[in-house]
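Supplementary Methods. Inverse-folding protocol.

Structures were first reduced to a discrete structure-token string of length 106. This string, shown here, constituted the complete conditioning input.
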């Protein structure tokens, strides 16, 4: 399972047997949702940036990235190091991954 580190906005993959505790964003989808591909592009563009710089870049990148940043900040302030957002943690280009995530017990 792919999770988002709340302090760095970076992905990490976990086996089901090694899943840490994580927060889940429950939200209504809008027209500016960030996809997995867009999130990876953002991560590559800001590789090596300090955490606060990434948060600022996310805020400046538009509504979708601001939503991701706000979720991660809130989850982190509530003690969660990891978060899961369906729109950007699932690579929807992979039908196998999409199917697995949609049937996975969270």
């Amino acid at each position: 399972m792919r999770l988002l580190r709340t302090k760095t906005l970076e992905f990490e993959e976990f086996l089901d047997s090694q899943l840490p505790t994580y927060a889940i964003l429950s939200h209504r989808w809008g027209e500016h949702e960030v996809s997995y591909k867009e999130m990876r592009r953002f991560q590559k563009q800001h590789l090596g940036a300090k955490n606060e710089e990434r948060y600022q870049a996310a805020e400046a990148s538009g509504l979708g990235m601001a939503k991701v940043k706000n979720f991660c900040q809130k989850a982190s302030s509530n003690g969660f190091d990891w978060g899961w957002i369906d729109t950007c943690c699932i690579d929807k280009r992979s039908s196998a991954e999409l199917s697995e995530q949609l049937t996975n017990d969270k």
